[in-house]
Each structure stands twice: as structure tokens, then as C-alpha cells.
Amino acid sequence: MTPSRRNYSQEWLPSIFNDFFDNDWMVKANATAPAINVIESDTDYKVEVAAPGMTKEDFNIHLSEDNELVISMEKKTENNEEDKQNKKYLRREFSYTKFQQALVLPDDVEKDKINANVTNGVLTIELPKRTPEEKAKINKVIEIH
Known about the structure:
Blueprint: H1 3-11, E1 36-40, E2 44-50, E3 59-63, E4 68-82, E5 89-104, E6 115-119, E7 122-128, H2 132-138
Antiparallel strand pairs: 1-2, 2-7, 3-4, 4-5, 6-7
């Protein structure tokens, strides 16, 4: 990684993919960001985000105009323990977790078929690849008359 690229990653919001297949994609801005796995098979890509205690309501996933998959997570919790007679707080805890990550999608992702689910504290996003037939339709040669 060049020094200028490293400084860019530290000054701006972290990006898991500067380029989808770049070796520098593991660089994160801080240790509080959830762990992310990216798995490729012949038919799809899978993105797994460690999200213990999170539910599907805590996530927002969308495609940006720049061909990025944007994953946002936000959770607020407040725990109160009161002295029942005097109504004084003995302990009061606030918790706020917020995370956003943009992943640049490869060109072969079938965007209309992306789906996601949360199971056992892991958000899994499935990104199906285009079939050879679908790729051929996109790369159709235009006949000149």
C-alpha cells in the first residue's frame, strides 16, 4: 500500500473495498467495526457481517448510484436499574452502536437478485453472479447495416 493510499483510508470513512479484489481491502479505520467476511463461489459472492445482538430491524442495505452495496447498522439501548423507594438511579447504562460500510460491487453481480438475512448474530448478504447466458446478453454485438 502506498503512503498516500494509507493516509486516504485513515482520513475518510473506511472502505472495505478500494477495489473489490484489492489486497488492501482488510484495512479498517478502528477496532469497533464488525468483522466482515467475503466469500466467492462459482455462482455467487457472500458477505458476512458479525452482528451479535442485532436484528434485521437494526440494518439498512441499499445500492448506491456508484455501484456500491451500502450496509448501515444502528442500535440504541438503555438499561435502567432504580431504587424503587427513593427513585434514584443506582446504575444507568446507554449503548449506541453505529456502523456504515460501502462495498464496490463487481460487474458480474446480478443486482436484482441480491438478498440478505440475519441468523445467529451474522448478517449474510448473497450476491448472485450473472450466468454465462446473461453475460452474453449484456455483451451483445451490435450489427452494423
